[in-house]
Amino acid sequence: MKILVAVKRVIDYAVKVRVKPNKSGVETSNVKMSMNPFCEIALEEALRIRESGAAKEVVAVTVGPAQCADTLRTALAMGADRAVHVDAGAAPVLPLSVAKILRALVQVEQPGLLILGKQAIDDDCNQTGQMVAGLLKWPQGTFASKVVLDKEKQVATVEREVDGGLETLCLDLPAVITTDLRLNQPRYATLPNIMKAKSKVIKKVTPEELNVEIKSDLEVVQVTEPPKRKAGVIISSVDELIDKLKNEVVSCNILNCK
Amino acid sequence: MARRRASQFLAGYCCSQSHSLVRRPPLCSQEPASISAPGLPHTHGKATSMFKPPSKLYRKLNSQTSCDIMQVHYSRTYGIHQRSFTSAAINIQRSPSFSKLNSDDIGYFKSMLGDKNVVQDEDRLSAANVDWMRKYKGSSQLLLLPRNTEEVSKILHHCNSRHLAIVPQGGNTGLVGGSVPVYDEVIISLASMDQIISLDKVNGILICEAGCILENLNSFLANEGFIMPLDLGAKGSCQIGGNVSTNAGGLHFIRYGSLHGNILGLEVVLADGTVLDMLGTLRKDNTGYDLKHLFIGSEGSLGIVTKVSILTPPKLLSTNLALLACKDFLSCQKLLLEAKRELGEAISAFEFMDSDAMDMVLAHMDGARNPFPSSSYNFYVLIETTGSDESYDKAKLEAFLLRSMEGGLISDGAIAQDINQASSFWQIREILAQIEPFVYEWTSTHRGSISAEHGLGLMKADKIHYSKSPETVQLMASIKKLLDPSGILNPYKVLPQSMLQ
């Protein structure tokens, strides 16, 4: 069985993000970019499934401009067998378009499992996995915190982290799984694997070759920073506190009352 | 508590700079004290040579028992330990030439500094009386917080005329007891003098007061595209004045060199209150004797540094970090040599630790992960490169590491793929700093010593003869007497008492 893992190149999680002066987006030039942390977890899970013998090949795929090849090289260095780079130009590609591209790739590659991170840390959309599952009419297990594959029965048992606790689903393969934080801890890219990665193939395709039209129904109007936290007020007496509670306050944090 | 990175460890545990393992001269033999460096990597440009460790001592260090002792100490004494007074432990008597504080002195300080900046409160004093390692505890009754150079000058002028001993104190993060009183010396804290005065954006020359915390300076500079040339584990607490007075090194020493090279000027207040304005900003200034070098590394014994003019390098954007495993010590040394040759100016840190150290970290650090879970190696090395082009630098590092692996220098390695992974590699190294006090204790009981990366302070005040000739020490004593005739500046430290009588 083949596993397809979709990964995204985003601003590194530890970087302090700044909004561009013209408010059209965030500063991405001269800023460290890395693989989306949830995508790393997705890739790690795919590698573990392959190592357990339930799958034969792990293929990493990404949608984005030329620099995204770096992310694919990281994926190969972690242990993916080969990679596909869909070059869609410099403009950001929205989840629905990514989902359509992934559907087209799935029809070409015929994997038994499509694993993605639950969301990207730059747009926090949490949509691509669900959309692809819908387009493919495949079962989906999102926010996975545990995945167990039964090769014989071609079934994936997925434990999901939901608001009420944990929910366990049984999915018939082929299926879509999106990964949550506690699923696993991704491995480091070790030198032997980096060496092997040099000979692995990154295939380049364009959306046109996949017969996918990328048109965006959404337009980013403005990006601003969240409002700065206002300074607190030190209240000098209980009477003043009561007065403020009655007249001024919508929500309050009572920290110090002299 | 501030993050710590030990920059000096005993052979076989952790090191980033050169150290020597010094054996005290055998009492009965004729041979002079031999200084042997067990072949630890020199990371500041000197030629690396191959040393054979003194076998008996090295074997002891590598034995299981040393690790056990440390583990027992760690779990038994972590965090709660409080020492008795330093004065009880050392053999130096309180010098009779120093006066005791009286109410007139307090009155004068209060009128000059304001009540708030004259601290006699028990709790605040007890914190200032104890060093970071909690090895040394003084009994000072007074902590002063001057706000500017003039106040420092007036304080010193008064103390000099009254023969009151003083201790200049910055972040109090020193490891040799140099920043805390031995007896009742008045503590002069530079903490209130934390203004950044100016930054020349073309040259990266920063002028600031001595009480500026290193991490704050780094944050300020990062916004302007520069960084401080030194980086210590204590950067959240240590102050630049203290860094200068101890000639601190740190992780990036291999790249940016010593403070003697990066400091362009100083403003220093002498023992009698004279303010020496040597705050130049020229890269080269060959006019007269370059006096600032006297004060850099003098540990507060020749004058109090109040302002600093420092050359800051541009902040480079791409950082790459790799954790490597080597099978033996020789490979580590060769690796350093090759790294310097092939990575050249891009190399910004080279840290080394052994398997015992790694095991200890993995056992005690929450969430620590062994990057190489399948095998255990004898030695681990962290190499960091900093450059301006991400993909080019990464490719260069990868190519070097792959070549080293093919050549057998490295047994395995992992390259950090994002900032999170890089932090976790650094954490492994930083946690080892907590072992430092216990390693030093163990070393002392086995009659060794850690040489002057951390300075002499109180801990090694009488050990200077191990590394400096008698004539040199004599001249140092003469300079000390010239600049501080009453001996009030940080007494009992740096130079042996016998030289200063």
Automatic annotation (TrEMBL), chain B:
<dbReference type="InterPro" id="IPR016164">
    <property type="entry name" value="FAD-linked_Oxase-like_C"/>
</dbReference>
<dbReference type="InterPro" id="IPR016171">
    <property type="entry name" value="Vanillyl_alc_oxidase_C-sub2"/>
</dbReference>
<dbReference type="InterPro" id="IPR004113">
    <property type="entry name" value="FAD-bd_oxidored_4_C"/>
</dbReference>
<dbReference type="InterPro" id="IPR016167">
    <property type="entry name" value="FAD-bd_PCMH_sub1"/>
</dbReference>
<dbReference type="InterPro" id="IPR051264">
    <property type="entry name" value="FAD-oxidored/transferase_4"/>
</dbReference>
<dbReference type="GO" id="GO:0051990">
    <property type="term" value="F:(R)-2-hydroxyglutarate dehydrogenase activity"/>
</dbReference>
<dbReference type="Pfam" id="PF01565">
    <property type="entry name" value="FAD_binding_4"/>
</dbReference>
<dbReference type="GO" id="GO:0005739">
    <property type="term" value="C:mitochondrion"/>
</dbReference>
<keyword id="KW-0560">Oxidoreductase</keyword>
<comment type="function">
    <text>Catalyzes the oxidation of D-2-hydroxyglutarate to alpha-ketoglutarate.</text>
</comment>
<dbReference type="InterPro" id="IPR016169">
    <property type="entry name" value="FAD-bd_PCMH_sub2"/>
</dbReference>
<keyword id="KW-0285">Flavoprotein</keyword>
<dbReference type="InterPro" id="IPR036318">
    <property type="entry name" value="FAD-bd_PCMH-like_sf"/>
</dbReference>
<dbReference type="InterPro" id="IPR006094">
    <property type="entry name" value="Oxid_FAD_bind_N"/>
</dbReference>
<keyword id="KW-0274">FAD</keyword>
<comment type="similarity">
    <text>Belongs to the FAD-binding oxidoreductase/transferase type 4 family.</text>
</comment>
<dbReference type="InterPro" id="IPR016166">
    <property type="entry name" value="FAD-bd_PCMH"/>
</dbReference>
<dbReference type="GO" id="GO:0071949">
    <property type="term" value="F:FAD binding"/>
</dbReference>
<protein>
    <recommendedName>
        <fullName>Probable D-2-hydroxyglutarate dehydrogenase, mitochondrial</fullName>
        <ecNumber>1.1.99.39</ecNumber>
    </recommendedName>
</protein>
<feature type="domain" description="FAD-binding PCMH-type">
    <location>
        <begin position="136"/>
        <end position="315"/>
    </location>
</feature>
<dbReference type="Pfam" id="PF02913">
    <property type="entry name" value="FAD-oxidase_C"/>
</dbReference>
